[in-house]
């Protein structure tokens, strides 16, 4: 088709394409229609008639809307990864904290360390720890409390708390 007809056809199609694009995303409708019009212009010379231009412009608008949606989705996923992925500094601090905790637990007396490990790592309750160790439930509670105090003091001395 002749290039002179392009502005006429676009001015006639634009309101319909905007309405179509707003069904996908009202905020991105203008950009989607503009993108579709640029692509239509590139294909203009090869189109046989206005009906073909109209059909192509509708398809191009839909694709531009879908592309915009996918782009926003990728950006959202990237932002989420940035939030979810700890920075190198955060990872280093986490590792240092974990190592300090392991050292504090290792420094506990053997009976307290065993009770602490069963309670925290094996996720046993006080009664289960008592049954596993043969230590009275009240004594298990006392040992856990002492172990907790010792760990907190050790971590405070190392500046971790």
Question: In words, what does this structure look like?
Answer:
It is a single chain. The chain is mostly helical. It has two domains: 3-84, Rna Polymerase Sigma Factor, Chain: A, CATH 1.10.1740; 88-157, Arc Repressor Mutant, subunit A, CATH 1.10.10. The chain has seven helices and no strands. Helix 2 crosses helix 3 (50-84). The protein is rod-shaped and about 95 Å long. The relative contact order is 0.08. The model has no long low-confidence stretch (mean pLDDT 88).
What tags apply to this protein structure?
Rna Polymerase Sigma Factor, Chain: A; about 160 residues; Arc Repressor Mutant, subunit A; mainly alpha
Topology:
Elements: H1 6-24, H2 29-43, H3 50-84, H4 88-106, H5 110-120, H6 126-133, H7 137-157
């Amino acid at each position: 088709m002749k290039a002179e007809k392009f502005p006429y056809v676009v001015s006639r199609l634009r309101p319909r394409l905007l309405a179509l694009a707003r069904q996908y995303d009202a905020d991105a409708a203008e950009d989607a229609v503009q993108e579709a019009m640029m692509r239509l212009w590139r294909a203009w010379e090869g189109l046989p008639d206005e009906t073909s231009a109209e059909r192509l412009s509708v398809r191009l608008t839909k694709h531009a809307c879908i592309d915009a949606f996918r782009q926003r989705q990728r950006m959202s996923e990237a932002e989420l990864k940035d939030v979810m992925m700890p920075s190198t500094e955060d990872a280093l601090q986490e590792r240092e904290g974990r190592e300090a905790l392991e050292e504090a637990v290792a420094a506990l007396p053997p009976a307290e360390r065993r009770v602490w490990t069963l309670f925290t790592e094996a996720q046993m309750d006080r009664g289960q720890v008592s049954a596993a160790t043969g230590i009275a439930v009240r004594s298990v509670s006392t040992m856990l409390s002492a172990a907790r105090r010792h760990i907190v003091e050790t971590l405070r001395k190392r500046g971790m708390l």
